[in-house]
Amino acid sequence: MEDQLKKDDVVLETDHVETVDHKKERKNKTKEQLEKLENEIKDLKDKLLRNAAELDNFKKRMNQERINDRKFASKTLIGDLLGPLDQFDRVVNMPTDNELLKNFLIGFKMINDSMYQVLNQDGLKEIEALNKPFDPKYHYAVEKTHDANKPDGINIEVIQKGYLYKDQLLRPAMVKINEWSENNGEDK
After folding, report:
1. What are phi and psi of 179, to 5 degrees?
2. How far, in Å, CA of 149 to CA of 42, rounded?
3. Same domain, 142 and 169
């Protein structure tokens, strides 16, 4: 019977050990699940902050685009008007000996000047190109000439005026540039 009691005691102790191991295992699983959930919460918070920042940036970008749309609303219209205005400018500045025609041209020149004044007040600005160094951002070279008496890379003639509209390029100035070289004592 003593043998039996010892066997029962061992069984009871083994059952107790399994229960403790089982509790430890369950506790470890719970800790792992808790860590996993905490990491998931951390990731979700990070994503939430990123999405909030992205939304804020999107709002700012849309607001800036709206401001620019209003600011440059008349850019296309002014660009379309430049061709006819250039032609009108050439006509009113044309030389003539006819006194009657001169009087009409003086009146038309006043109208032309007032149109350009209105456009200038709205933000139109002529690009200064004559006798300035060639700048491909603002000038479009249409022709080259070789004159050793003038500096190299200088615009010597403006074929068509260029314009900026509120610091944005509306149309580059078409220019004739001077290009020469002193290599071998000859112009190239």
Report:
1. -140, 115
2. 73
3. yes
How far apart are alpha carbons 106 and 31 in whole angstroms? Answer: 93
Residues 105 and 62 in one domain: no
- Bridge partners of 157, per DSSP, are 176
pTM more than 0.70: no
Strands laid side by side in the 124-126 sheet = 124-126, 163-165, 168-171
Please, are residues 175 and 134 in contact by the beta-carbon 8 Å criterion?
A: yes
CA-to-CA distance for 27 and 33, rounded, in angstroms?
Answer: 10
Q: What is the CA radius of gyration of the chain?
A: 41
90 close to 128: Cβ distance less than 8 angstroms? no
Give the tens place of pLDDT for each residue, 113-164: 999 999 999 889 999 999 899 999 999 999 898 878 888 888 998 999 999 9
Same-domain status, 161 and 117:
no
Please tell me the total count of domains within the chain: 3
Same domain assignment for residues 156 and 132: yes
Q: Provide the domain limits for residue 105.
A: 73-122
Which CATH number goes with the domain that contains 138? 2.30.22.10
Distance CA 177, CA 101 (A): 35
Q: What's the pLDDT at 188?
A: 43
In this structure, the answer to whether residues 12 and 65 fall within a common structural domain is yes
User: Which two three-digit tokens encode residue 169?
Assistant: 């390029």
Structure tokens at 20: 């403790």
* Cα four-point dihedral sign 27, 33, 36, 37: negative
